[in-house]
TrEMBL record:
NCBIfam families from the UniProt entry: PQQ_syn_pqqC
Function summary: Ring cyclization and eight-electron oxidation of 3a-(2-amino-2-carboxyethyl)-4,5-dioxo-4,5,6,7,8,9-hexahydroquinoline-7,9-dicarboxylic-acid to PQQ.
Organism for this UniProt entry: Methylocapsa polymorpha
One of the Pfam families matching this protein, by short name: TENA_THI-4
Protein name per its UniProtKB record: Pyrroloquinoline-quinone synthase
Designated gene of the protein: pqqC
């Protein structure tokens, strides 16, 4: 029996859960950074070691910021159960007990690429654009309404596919990458879906108006822009036109 299709929601009508979910996922289909030229070069084995080092060093700025943005989020939450759930994200990155955490696993990657830890963690070689882009994300989560701040994490819906591609592509294409330094991405294959499922359910339950729903979709768009802009900066500095800013990491043999 044919069913009458549901009319498209008006500009003020609350989206159904299915429509809301589809609007969120459409952002990833359009804007997630797996479509960026630098990403394709990285996973396709088209970068040299110095360019891969530059990516890992700059991406550390983002990894280090994640538990700080989560801590700033928790500081505003009065719901004990939400705090109990969200604090796992900090433990995932900073570690807890015998679990070293994602930041340590990222440093194993930069170790394996021949970068000194003190240099990586000092941010001295990071691109100015990277530092400003990352801090814009921390500020967004600190300042936006809670449901919108949660929504900004929903790029994790799209993360497992990029992690699988990264693991396979980098292991296959770079002789200086081995299985041990890919530990960060392997762990995120299970952590990201868990976090995304919780965040998506929270956003669906707590975005009570169409305006709030649209703000949540906008938050996913903002986060995609954060990830995309980081790759823009890397591509400009280390691929083409290859203009490395003063003080930023300069791979061995770089002429610019």
């Amino acid at each position: 029996m044919n069913q009458t299709p549901r009319p498209q929601a008006s500009a003020s009508e609350l989206w159904s859960p299915e429509e809301f979910d589809a609007a969120i996922r459409a952002v990833g289909a359009e804007r997630y950074h797996d479509k960026h030229a630098f990403h394709k070069l990285l996973h396709g084995g088209k970068l040299n070691k110095g360019q891969v080092q530059a990516w890992a060093l700059n991406r550390y700025c983002y990894q280090e910021a994640v538990p700080r943005k989560d801590a700033s989020f928790i500081s505003r939450v009065h719901d004990r159960e939400l705090r109990r759930e969200w604090i796992r994200r900090i433990h995932d990155h900073d570690g807890f007990g015998d679990e070293p955490g994602g930041i340590e696993r990222w440093l194993i990657l930069t170790d394996g690429l021949g970068l000194e830890r003190d240099y990586v963690t000092s941010f001295r070689g990071a691109l100015p654009a990277t530092r400003h882009i990352v801090e814009s994300y921390v500020r967004f989560v600190r300042e936006q309404p809670l449901v919108v701040a949660v929504a900004s994490s929903l790029t994790e819906l799209f993360a497992p596919s990029i992690h699988r591609e990264r693991i396979a592509g980098m292991l296959e294409n770079y002789s200086f990458i081995d299985d041990g330094v890919m530990a960060y991405f392997k762990r995120r294959l299970s952590q990201a879906p868990r976090d995304a499922d919780f965040a998506l359910a929270y956003v669906k339950a707590n975005a009570k108006t169409r305006a709030e729903q649209e703000a949540c979709v906008g938050a996913v768009r903002f986060k995609c822009d954060v990830l995309w802009a980081q790759l823009d900066a890397l591509h400009h500095a280390y691929v083409t036109p290859g203009l490395i800013p003063p003080g930023a990491f300069r791979p061995e043999g770089a002429n610019s």
